[in-house]
């Protein structure tokens, strides 16, 4: 029971982190590996377990979703689901070692962009003499590749979304957070659909159920907490999470 309690707490923490700023994988994945699952199986199980928590967070924010530039929300969500499924397929057929080597550098870049994205966007606008903005096609293309990454590995994909939207569209991280949660849920749903069909996700049903229950509570509570934070404080939480996640990725390598 004490071991299951730790898994439950890991699920709660992962759900809260994903709702607040991302990085829930860093809690869920090591917890499952510690209980004897292989890294790939733990990656798959954690992704499935975090789906309901992400959906719960998206439900809390359902009235606060704002479009990402010129791309429609329906098209963006559909791309996220498809990309998540593609990434999940790659995880099941390809080794993760090569991508693990690139992940810290991708996160470091995303963190810098998240911190400076709006300033960079304004600077580019002044230099070019016109506003900088990605086209709908560019937004959807970028979202597809991020969703593939999310389905394949998943770590901090929400941070990368905010970074892309910040520099490409000049969007504020706090304002974009509801859409980040919604698209994270869409990516997880796409990946989970394939995982349930083609992987050994159900080989650890007790761990999956306990972490899933914790993640639902954490996602719901974390989203409510994030809604009550001032915009400047939420931006600080997002940036701190991004920096911490990047450092942990480098230490992990």
Explain how this protein is built:
- By secondary structure, this protein is mainly α.
- It has one domain.
- The chain has 10 helices and no strands.
- α1 (2-20) packs across α3 (39-60).
- The radius of gyration is 17 Å and the shape is globular.
- The two termini are 32 Å apart.
- The model has no long low-confidence stretch (mean pLDDT 80).
Distance between the termini: 32 Å
Q: Globular, elongated, flat, extended or rod-shaped: what is the shape? A: globular
Poorly predicted residue ranges: none
In angstroms, what is the radius of gyration? 17 Å
Structural class of the secondary elements? mainly alpha
Report helical residue fraction: over 70%
Number of helices: 10
Mean pLDDT: 80
Domains counted in the coordinates: how many? 1
Beta-sheet strand percentage?
Answer: under 5%
Secondary structure layout:
Elements: H1 2-20, H2 25-34, H3 39-60, H4 73-93, H5 97-128, H6 136-152, H7 157-169, H8 173-198, H9 205-228, H10 231-252
Helix pairs in contact: 1-2, 1-3, 1-9, 2-3, 3-8, 3-9, 4-6, 4-8, 5-7, 5-10, 6-7, 6-8, 7-8
Summarize the structure.
By secondary structure, this protein is mainly α. It has helices spanning 2-20, 25-34, 39-60, 73-93, 97-128, 136-152, 157-169, 173-198, 205-228, 231-252.
Structure characteristics:
253 residues; mainly alpha; 10 helices
